[in-house]
Amino acid sequence: MLEEVKRSLEASPIVKKGDYNYFVNPISDGVPAMDPKMLRELSLAVHKHADLDIDKIVAVEAMGIHLATALSLATDIPFVVIRKRQYGLEGEKQVYQKTGYGSSNLYINDLHPGEKILLIDDVVSTGGTLIALIKTLEDLGLEIKSTVAVIEKGEGKEIVEKETGVEVLSIIKLDVIDGKVVIEKTIED
């Protein structure tokens, strides 16, 4: 399992942004084109390992959307997207996020106290996005049943867990060594 995903990640080109080694991959960037087999593999892995006794799947724009869509189609659980732009809807909550390569605001809509959710994002690297979101979602009275980062890079997973007390399931842990993606382990190992 996860063979297509591993193959794709290992073929990823690396772009240096300051001190940050950024890998370019269909999962995290939408380019090159994503083979549907990869989405299927990822959806099955999340389905197998995450707590799906939930009301909604919550995805982070932009690269969490296709992952949430695949999981929603497989489970019949609705999903909502935490957006990068403000709508001004009643109850909208703004969250500041800082990542390894920038910072911005995210906007939460259509989540309500008491709802049980699965939070999914494409990559956890520095942990900045997930820490900000988990704290805000819990402050809003949501019950986070599972948090999934498809790709784990660096120490972000441990940082998130230490800062929030919430376990992060990562499907694939990787590193960038000598300009290449190296798969360290998968959730199936």
Structural commentary:
The radius of gyration is 16 Å and the shape is globular. The model has no long low-confidence stretch (mean pLDDT 94). The chain has helices at 3-10, 26-29, 36-49, 65-75, 128-139, 156-164; strands at residues 14-17, 20-23, 56-60, 79-82, 93-99, 102-108, 116-124, 143-153, 168-177, 180-186. It has one domain (3-186): Rossmann fold (3-Layer(aba) Sandwich). It has six helices and ten strands; from the N terminus they run αββααβαββββαβαββ. It is of the alpha/beta class and 189 residues long. α3 (36-49) crosses α4 and α5 (128-139) packs parallel to α6 (156-164). It has a six-stranded mixed sheet, sandwiched between helices. The chain has a two-stranded antiparallel sheet with strand order 1-2. Strands 5-6 form a two-stranded antiparallel ribbon.
Describe what is shown at a glance.
This protein has 189 residues and is of the alpha/beta class.
Question: Notable features of this structure?
Answer:
189 residues; two-stranded antiparallel ribbon; Rossmann fold; alpha/beta; globular; six-stranded mixed beta sheet
Strand content: 35-45%
Shape: globular
Kindly state the percentage of residues in helix.
25-40%
* Strand/helix succession: HEEHHEHEEEEHEHEE
Number of strands: 10
Name given to the CATH architecture: 3-Layer(aba) Sandwich
Structural class: alpha/beta
CA-based gyration radius? 16 Å
Q: Unreliable segments (pLDDT under 50, ≥5 consecutive)? A: none
Separation of the first and last Cα atoms = 10 Å
Major sheet: arrangement of strands: 4-3-7-8-9-10
